[in-house]
Structure formats: structure tokens, C-alpha cells
Design goal:
The complex is a heterodimer of chains A (423) and B (141). Chain A is of the alpha/beta class and 423 residues long. Chain A has ten helices and 21 strands. In chain A, strand 5, helix 7 and strand 6 form a beta-alpha-beta unit. Chain B has 141 residues and is of the alpha+beta class. In chain B, a hairpin with a 2-residue loop joins strand 5 and strand 6. Classes of the chains: A alpha/beta (423), B alpha+beta (141).
Chain lengths: 423, 141
């Protein structure tokens, strides 16, 4: 499809999407009416910039189903995002949405070189997280043999990878490296595996990490991008040229904005990625701010695809951290600390990557009023804090009790996070 | 017979103990006894000093996490059997010892104890005619 034809398709779909949200989602109708906008103002994709933005908080404010544009009887699947502040963000899919999702995931896997002869080992988590099922439907769509092993249980992953002859691995890049090392340690020869490619996403990763995965597993490591609000994995993915991620822009229209001024930036500028869904029925989103920082290019790829490409996402325009694929806002930690006696809400989060796995440490001050000269009391305090945080965040965390002096005080913006990972 | 003891929360970091002692040293605080209980991540420094209230406020000013706790002290000949005897008096009455430490002066041991119930412990030790020390006696040693 040439770009002019694509633009006509995008324009037609945008007009339908705007009508759909205007007439079916009170939130969008009010927001547009406040600005004197109606569906009649939208004639083509060029009019997109007059529409208001949508942010994650809008989904939370309309928890759980307030932004859905169809009756619940049309919804066939519900997913929810991992570990976000307060209420999780809930997304719903109609039968057509599931079919679109399968289609874009089929494209993702095809671009990574997979076909019906492949065995795809899906080591993304299955469940409310969109990773597992997203890959699963795409894998079935291309006719591959899907192995829905889900995350964790490394020894079993290795055993089945060898015994079933998995050719494609799907998981987070950090888990891929972890698996690579576990395979080396197991002493099983690389010749016993048939793995040739991996599709990795759900967390930021560097080119160095890619090289390491490729060398250790002797595969092609493909970057994939997605977020549950937009659809899940399948929003964009690399081809075998590994020169940027092709965005499925016939379904998800990207813009790059300046996160401060909210102005749309010209092609090639680094800025915040914004998506408008063009075909979604269950949860259509207008100008959804992803907070991911990247740049776009419409230059034709060596592989022949004309779809717009985004560069690897390497930063965020908010304070959200992605740790082992789980979203974490420092405010979630703060909420737990404020509810707990024995410590003060002065804390520092330290994120690092040790042996290719993200680590999270919390340094927190002991409250003098509760400090009673007993080692056992401090140990149980630290354990209780760790357990509470782990269940609230869905992440393992190391808790270190520190002296008051160790955490810098400031009235305004204090530094709450040290991210030592290099992206 | 109750003796105030300073408990200071310390991270396991080199130089922290020195800092505490320097801060107290500048204000001429005298130390009668000192012990450190530690885990892999943190420690509790326990100090018996000449002016515990003053020492506490000095340390607070320097942002240490500090509190006053209560211990008792017994003087006994510095032979193991006497230490054992002190502990047996307590265990016979189901009074548990949370921690204890001791130092010697000549042929005498000065034993510091923190018990599950210090008042019961004092009574029991008195009943067995043990040589309990009060704070001012301890500071003079």
C-alpha cells in the first residue's frame, strides 16, 4: 500500500472512530463539547491535532468500563494492566478487536521470520497481562505450533525448549538473558536446541543487551512494542533488518509531541509517543499519551515495508519505572509506607540490573518513636514491609532500613529514585 | 536499680561508630559500657553513658535514630559460674534475658542485662542477694 492510499484509509477510520466515541462514550462527548468540537469537524487524519489528549488517569477515573464504546454484551475479553497506582487500567475487546489483535500479532511474528512450521514458546505471563495471550493468538493465526508455557519455571522452559524443538521464544528481554545463562549453566549443548529467533518486549532494553542475547542464544532478537491500553503487544515490531519498529499504523496512528507544550513535533524529532486507535471497538482511544519517548521515520525500510517506524523506546516522560515488565510508580511505594508504622515516609528506590535481571531496593528510615532496641523488632519490621510491598507492587523488593541522614531531605522535588540501569 | 541505656540504630557502614563517638566526645560524655549487636544489614549500638538525656539530645541533633532503653546491672566475681548463677535465678522464674553483656574490673564482673520484665528480674536477684548496681554506682566504676 502506498502512503497516499494508507492516508485515505487512516482518514476514513479516524472519522468513524471519532463518531464512535462521540456517540457512545459520554466522557469523550463532554470533552469534545467543551472544546466546541463534534464529529463534523473531522474530515481527515490531518484534523487529528484539534482533538483532546487521553491519559492513563482518564482510564482510572472511568474505572472499570467507563470508556468502553460498546455494550458489555459485545465485550468478549477483559485485560488489566499490571501494578499501577490505585486502580488498575482495564481494557476490553470485542470479537473484532481480538481479530485485529491476532492480525497485528501475526504481522509481528511474520516480520520476525516465523511461519506455520515454527514452534513458538510463549514465556510471557498469561492472564490479565496482555503479553501471553497476545502472542498466543498471533502464533495460532500464522499456523505455528504454540507452546503456552507462560512465565517462570526456568528448568521446565529449558527442558521443553529442547524436547519440543522450540524455534521462536517470546518473553521479556531480561528473562531471555536469564534463560540464556541458565542454559549455559545446565551444560546442555546448544546443538540440542533449534531456537532461531526471539520476540522480546514489555520493558526497555539496550542494543548491548540485544547483542548479548543474540550471542548467548545464537538467535535473532527482535524488539516488539505494545501497551495494553492501545491493544497489547502488536502495536509495533521490528523486521529482520532491526532498524526501528514498524508501527501498524493502519490500526494505531502515531504522533510525536513535546511532553511540555503538547505541540505535535515534525518527523524525526524525539518526543512523547501518542496513539489514536483507528479500528478498535471496545476501547477506542483518541490521542493516548504513552509517556514513552521515541522518534518516527516514514522512510521506506530495507525490508520493503512502508509503515512508519519508531526507534527503540529508551525513556519516559513521567516517573514510571518498568521493572521486569511491571509498571511501577514511586507513589505506589509511598502509599504503602504511609500506611505502615515503624518507618518514616522518607525513602529512596534503587533500580539496577544484576546478571541481566532488574533489581529493586528500597531504603527507608526507621521511625525513632518505634525504635525499641531490639534486633528482632527491626527484622520483623523489614520483613513485614517487604511482604506488603511485594504483594502491592507485584515485584520482589529488597528492603534496607537506614539512618535518617542517609536520605536527602528537600522541600520541593526530592530524589526518590536512582535508576542505575543503562539503556 | 533501672539503668538508662542509649540504643542507636546504625547502618552497617564503616565510620558510623566513629561518628557517634566523636559527636559524644566533643560534649565530654563519658562511656561506661558499649556493645554492638549487628545483622548483615544494620546494627544497634548500645551505650551506657554518664549523662544519657544529654547524650540522647546531642545524637538527635546529629540526626541519629536514638532511644533510651532500660537495663539492669549486677556485680559478681568474674568467674563463669557466677554469671551462670545470675542467669539461672532468672530462668528459674521464667524471666527471659533479651540480651546481656559484661565487662570486668579487677576480679569483678559487671553484668548488664535486659530482661523481658526488668522489675521482676530486680526482685528475683535481690531475693537471691545479688549485688545490684544503680546508675550512679555504675558510672563511678
Amino acid at each position: 500500500m502506498d502512503r497516499d492510499e494508507l492516508r485515505r484509509v487512516q482518514s476514513g477510520r479516524l472519522i468513524e472512530t471519532v463518531e464512535r466515541v462521540y456517540f457512545n462514550v459520554p466522557y469523550y462527548r463532554h470533552k469534545m463539547q467543551e472544546r466546541g468540537l463534534g464529529p463534523e469537524k473531522i474530515h481527515s487524519i490531518d484534523d487529528l491535532s484539534i482533538l483532546p489528549f487521553t491519559v492513563k488517569q482518564d482510564l482510572r477515573d472511568n474505572y472499570p468500563f467507563g470508556l468502553f464504546a460498546v455494550p458489555m454484551s459485545e465485550i468478549v475479553r477483559i485485560h488489566a494492566s499490571s501494578g499501577t497506582t490505585g486502580k488498575s487500567t482495564v481494557v476490553g475487546y470485542t470479537r473484532n478487536d481480538i481479530s485485529t489483535w491476532s492480525e497485528v500479532m501475526a504481522r509481528t511474528l511474520t516480520a520476525a521470520g516465523a511461519n506455520r512450521n515454527d514452534f513458538i514458546q510463549i514465556a510471557y505471563g498469561y492472564g490479565l497481562f496482555t503479553g501471553g495471550l497476545g502472542l498466543h493468538y498471533g502464533g495460532e493465526k500464522i499456523g505455528a505450533s504454540v507452546i503456552p508455557i507462560s512465565g517462570g519455571n526456568t528448568m521446565r522452559q529449558i527442558e521443553l525448549m529442547r524436547d519440543f524443538g522450540s524455534t521462536v521464544l517470546a518473553c521479556t528481554p531480561s528473562y531471555a538473558l536469564f534463560l540464556a545463562e541458565a542454559i549455559q549453566e545446565s551444560g546442555i549443548s546448544r546443538d540440542e536446541f533449534k531456537l532461531k529467533a526471539g520476540v522480546f518486549g514489555a520493558e526497555p532494553w539496550t542494543e548491548n543487551m540485544r547483542r548479548e542475547i543474540e550471542e548467548k542464544l545464537m538467535i535473532k532478537a527482535i524488539d516488539i512494542y505494545g501497551l495494553s491500553e492501545v491493544i497489547g503487544p502488536g502495536v509495533a515490531s521490528e523486521c529482520l533488518c532491526q532498524e526501528g519498529l514498524h508501527i501498524n499504523e493502519d490500526h494505531f496512528y502515531p504522533e510525536i509531541i513535546d511532553p511540555e507544550t503538547l505541540e505535535v513535533l515534525p518527523e524525526g524529532s524525539m518526543g512523547e509517543l501518542v496513539f489514536t486507535t483507528l479500528t478498535k471497538e471496545g476501547l477506542p482511544l483518541i490521542r493516548y499519551r504513552t509517556r514513552d519517548l521515541t522518534r518516527l521515520t516514514r522512510e521506506k525500510c530495507k525490508c520493503g515495508r512502508t509503515l512508519v517506524r519508531m526507534s527503540k523506546c529508551l525513556g519516559r516522560s513521567d516517573d514510571m519505572l518498568i521493572i521486569r515488565g511491571v509498571n511501577l510508580f514511586p507513589s505506589q511505594v509511598e502509599t504503602v509506607l504511609l500506611d505502615m508504622s515503624g518507618i518514616k515516609p522518607h525513602y529512596l528506590l534503587i533500580v539496577d540490573r544484576v546478571n541481566n535481571l532488574d533489581t529493586l531496593e528500597l531504603k527507608v528510615e526507621v521511625d525513632e518513636a518505634f525504635f525499641l532496641d531490639k534486633i528482632s523488632q527491626l527484622e520483623s519490621l523489614s520483613k513485614k514491609l517487604r511482604d506488603t510491598l511485594e504483594s502491592a507492587l507485584g515485584l520482589s523488593i529488597k528492603v534496607t532500613l537506614v539512618e535518617p541522614k542517609m536520605i536527602e531531605r528537600s522541600e520541593g522535588k526530592s530524589k526518590r529514585v536512582i535508576d542505575k540501569r543503562k539503556f | 536499680m533501672i539503668i538508662p541505656q542509649l540504643s542507636i540504630f546504625l547502618e552497617n557502614k564503616s565510620g558510623r561508630l566513629t561518628e557517634v563517638l566523636e559527636v559524644l566526645g566533643k560534649e565530654n560524655i563519658k562511656i561506661t559500657a558499649l556493645t554492638v549487636a549487628d545483622t548483615s544489614e544494620f546494627g544497634i549500638l548500645r551505650l551506657i553513658v554518664s549523662d544519657p538525656e544529654k547524650a540522647k539530645s546531642i545524637l538527635k541533633q546529629h540526626l541519629f535514630t536514638v532511644n533510651l532503653s532500660e537495663v539492669i546491672s549486677v556485680m559478681a566475681p568474674n568467674e563463669a559460674k557466677y554469671y551462670a548463677k545470675v542467669l539461672k535465678v532468672l530462668s528459674d522464674l521464667d524471666i527471659s534475658v533479651e540480651y546481656t553483656y559484661a565487662f570486668s574490673r579487677g576480679s569483678k564482673s559487671i553484668i548488664i542485662l535486659r530482661c523481658s520484665n526488668n522489675d521482676d528480674a530486680i526482685k528475683a536477684l535481690k531475693d537471691h542477694e545479688m549485688d545490684l548496681l544503680n546508675a550512679s554506682e555504675l558510672y563511678k566504676i
